[in-house]
Amino acid sequence: xxxxxxxxxxxxxxxxxxxxxxxxxxxxxxxxxxxxxxxxxxxxxxxxxxxxxxxxxxxxxxxxxxxxxxxxxxxxxxxxxxxxxxxxxxxxxxxxxxxxxxxxxxxxxxxxxxxxxxxxxxxxxxxxxxxxxxxxxxxxxxxxxxxxxxxxxxxxxxxxxxxxxxxxxxxxxxxxxxxxxxxxxxxxxxxxxxxxxxxxxxxxxxxxxxxxxxxxxxxxxxxxxxxxxxxxxxxxxxxxxxxxx
Length: 245
Ligand code: 1GP
Hints:
alpha/beta; TIM Barrel; eight-stranded parallel β-barrel; 10 helices; 8 strands; 42% helix; binds SN-glycerol-1-phosphate
């Protein structure tokens, strides 16, 4: 299924805050995924982001099929590598890791993925992906072999996000990394939001409705939560309310 309207266009036009639940397929059983789908549909979750920095279990296809057969929430791939491209999803964050200086993640892998994306019906969302230091070394920092932007260096984050927008990227995603001890600082979100006009996605280390609400107030257009929900599905309605309210 194609999205009725693009993720970026809908965010820009409707000016609504959005809630994306991150599904790392390695962290779910099919039973638990079913429960997540049910509760997400009831709670007004806007998107499922789907993927992980390192996947070791071959469940992607099964899970994507199951999600698409059981709910209308758009599924956006959030791939750790090009093996995670799957046409069963609706769209894909085509991530350029602009906070790092690893050429493979700035353009190399994209060249490999481009013909597959062109042939698929996926909505391709070019995304400036920025890792922000969340107080602990995350899988994504290790796997990408890049240094995150220091949490107190808002000016670096601002210039990086701005460069991403000027290069024509459609979205900026600032991520403290899955399971980060500290989410992206609110002061950094505010600063970056002041300088860019494309939508801003914030994730990594958000564990409570209050943190999600504060990220929105600071300027996040989309808030992504993974770990906390993996641990406690009951958080879905309260975080959704905090973001949409
Ligand atoms: C990670 O932003 C996502 O890339 C979500 O992080 O799992 O810490 O919520 P958490």
